[in-house]
Amino acid sequence: MADDLPARETMEFDVVVVGAGPAGLAAAIKLKQISPDINVVVVEKGSEVGAHILSGAVIDPSGLDRLLPDWRGDETRPIKTEVNDDRFYYLTQGSALRLPNFLLPPLMSNHGNFVVSLGNVCRWLATKAEALGVEIYPGFAAAEVLYTDSGAVAGVATGDMGIGKSGAHKDSFTRGMELRAKYTLFAEGARGNLGKQLIAKFALGEGREPQKYGIGLKELWQVAPEKAKPGLVQHSFGWPLDNSTGGGSFLYHLEDNLVSVGFVVHLNYTNPYLSPFEEFQRFKTHPAVRDTFEGAKRLAYGARAITEGGYQSVPKLTFPGGALIGCDAGFMNVPRIKGSHNAIHSGMLAAEQVAAALAAGRAYDEIAGYEEAWRSSIIGRDLFRVRNAKPLWSKFGTLIGIALGGLDMWTNTFGFSLFGTQGHGKPDSATLKPAAESTRIDYPRPDGKISFDRLSSVFLSNTNHEEDQPPHLVVKDMALQKSSEHDVFAGPSTRYCPAGVYEWVEEGGAPKFVINAQNCVHCKTCDIKDPNQNITWVPPEGAGGPNYPNM
Ligand SMILES: Cc1cc2nc3c(=O)[nH]c(=O)nc-3n(C[C@H](O)[C@H](O)[C@H](O)COP(=O)(O)OP(=O)(O)OC[C@H]3O[C@@H](n4cnc5c(N)ncnc54)[C@H](O)[C@@H]3O)c2cc1C
Ligand code: SF4
Q1: Residue 542: pLDDT band by 50, 70, 90 thresholds?
Q2: The predicted structure's pLDDT at residue 5
Q3: Which end of the chain is more exposed for a tag (fewer CB within 10 A), N or C?
Q4: Closest listed ligand to the CA of 328
Q5: SS3 63
C-alpha cells in the first residue's frame, strides 16, 4: 500500500525540464543565458544524453543560430557536413524518377542545412547546458506529474526502483525522487507519456485536429570510401508502399563514410498485415539505393515515432505550472521531415516566458505568452505553409496527394492556399480495416547482407531493460486484445512493432499475447496504433531502453 512506503526525497528547483532532446536542452540553455540564477534541472530517461535520440538527421540550423550564435566557430561542434547535393525521387518497383529541384517548393530545399547525428548534437548541447550550470540527471525517467493543492503542475516524480515482475519489492527497492519546481517544461518528444496525460487532464486538444503520427525506422551504415558522398541528401516516395499508404525514405551521407538510411510509414495505414519494418528492409533492395550498401557494414538500428499532424493538431501548449515544447507539442514539419529546429525554437520561446514569469515573482501559473506567441513565431510560419501536405496525401493517395500538396506549398510560398486548412479525420488508432477485408502481404526473406530480420536489428540498438520489473507496456484488457486485436485485426502489433516485442503464440490450443518488453526501443508506436487504444507505454525502471551510439 502506498501509505506504507517511505516518503520520497524532495528537491526544489525553479524549473524542471523533462527530456534532454533538442527542445529540453535548448530551454535549459536559454533559461541560464537569460539569468544564471535560475535553478534548472533536466531529467532524461536514457542511460546518457543521446542514448534515446533517433533522428535522420538533416537539420535546419535556424534554431542553433539563435540559441548559440557562435556555434559555427566551435571546434567541438558535431555539425560539420553541409548539404551539397539534394535529390528527390519517385520510385516504382524497378525504376527511379528524379524530380527536378526547380519543381520543389523553395521551403523543401536543403541548401544551408547540415547532416548530423542528432544524438551527438544533444550530447554536445548537454555540455553547453552543464557549463552554464544546468543539472542533468540521465537514467531517470519522469514517471508521474506532481500537482499543487489547487491543481497546478508542481514538478515530476521519478519512478520507484527495485520492484519485481509480480509487483513485490526486491532488496534493491528505492523510492523515486520528487523534483518540485515553479514551472515544468515537458520535452519528451513524440507521444510523450506525461504529455499525453496532461493533454487529457487539461483538455489541451479541444478544438484542434487529432494528432497524427508516423513511425520512422533508421539504420546507420559504414560504406566503402568510394561510395561515400558526404553532404548528399536523398529522399524518395512511392515503392515499396502502395499508392494509398503514405511514407517514404531518407538517405543521408555524413562524414567518416557513414550513411544514415531510414524509412517513415504514416501510421494512418489501413492494412493490418503491413509491416513498416519489412517495408524498410525491402526499400534498401531497390536498384537506386542498393549499391550504397553492397560490401558495407550496418552499425546501428532503431525506430521512433514522429508527429505528423502539424499546425492544425498542435494542442494548447500551456497549463498552470508548465508547458509542452518540441515534439511533445507536435512541432514537426512533415514534408521537410524536420522537427529539431522547431524543437529548439519552442524550447527558447517557452524559456523566455518562464524566465520573465520568474523575474516577476510568479509561480505555478500559466505562461500564456508562449501559447499566444507561437503561431506568429518562426515555428508557426514554418508549419502554416505546409499544413495541407499531410491531409492531402492522406485523402488523395501518394501520386495525386503529393502533387496537390506540392501545389499548395507553392501557393503558400506566395501567401495563399486553394485548400484553406484541411482536417485530418480519424486518429491513427481508428484507421485499420479488419483482416478479413485486407490483403495479406508476403515480404521477402531477409538476405542478411542488405536486408535483415527484426531480432538481429534490435541487437544493434543495444537495448537493455532490467528483466524482473513490472511490464512497461500495459495492456488494459487482455480479453479485448484477444477478441479484437487478434480475432478481428490478425495481430497488427506483431508487425508494427519494430522490435519484435509482441507475439501471439498458441498455448493450450488458444492464442496467448506475449510481450517481450525487454526488446522495446521506446518508439511509442503501440501506444499510438493499437486499434483499441488498449496498450499504454509507461516509462520502465531507471535507464532501460536503447543505447544508441550516434543516431
Ligand atoms: C526517423 C526520423 C527521422 C527524422 N529526421 C529528421 C531530420 O532529418 N531533421 C530534423 O530536424 N528532424 C528529424 N526528425 C524529427 C526530430 O528528430 C524531432 O523533431 C526532434 O528530435 C524533437 O526533439 P524533442 O526534443 O522534442 O524530442 P526528442 O528528440 O524525442 O527528445 C526527447 C527526449 O526526452 C526523453 N524522455 C522522454 N520521455 C521522458 C520521461 N518521461 N522522462 C525523462 N526523459 C524522457 C527521451 O529519452 C529523449 O531523450 C526525425 C525523426 C525521426 C524519428
Ligand atoms: S513495444 Fe511499442 S514502444 Fe516498444 S518498440 Fe514496440 S511498438 Fe515501439
Answers
A1: confident
A2: 85
A3: N
A4: 1
A5: helix
- 1 pLDDT more than 60: no
Which residues does residue 376 pair with via DSSP β-bridges, in sequence order?
none
**Residue closest to 283 by CA, chosen among 257, 262, 266, 260:** 262
**How far is the C-alpha of 535 from the C-alpha of 532, rounded, in Å?**
8
- Residue 488 phi/psi, 5-degree rounding, is -90, -45
- Taking the C-alpha atoms of residue 456 and residue 284, their distance in angstroms, rounded to an integer, is 16
Copy the grid coordinates of residue 363.
509561480
Phi, psi of 188 (to 5 degrees): -80, -5
Asked if pLDDT for residue 350 goes beyond 60, the answer is yes
Phi-psi region of 257 (alpha: psi -120 to 50; beta: other; left: phi over 0): left
pLDDT at 3: 55
How far apart are alpha carbons 304 and 314 in whole angstroms?
19
Which residues have C-beta atoms less than 6 Å from ligand 2? 473, 497-499, 501, 520-526, 537
pLDDT at 4: 77
Mean pLDDT, to the nearest integer, of 58-65?
A: 98
Write the single-letter amino acid at 302: G
Q: For ligand 2, pick from 306, 428, 520 the residue to mutate: most ligand atoms within 8 Å of CB.
A: 520
Q: Report d(CA 459, CA 463) in Å as an integer.
A: 7
Instruction: Report pTM.
Output: 0.97
Q: Per-residue pLDDT for 426 more than 90?
A: yes
Residues 529/265, Cβ–Cβ less than 8 Å: no
The SS3 of residue 405 is helix
Would you state the cell numbers that stand for residue 27, as one nine-digit string? 530551454
Q: What is the DSSP track for 304-354?
A: EEEE--GGGGPPP-EETTEEE-GGGTT--BTTTTB-HHHHHHHHHHHHHHH
CA nearest neighbour of 200 among 308, 44, 35, 316: 316
Residue 163 has pLDDT above 70, yes or no: yes
Given a cut of 80, whether residue 523 has pLDDT beyond it is yes
- Among protein residues, the one whose CA lies closest to atom 37 of ligand 1: 188
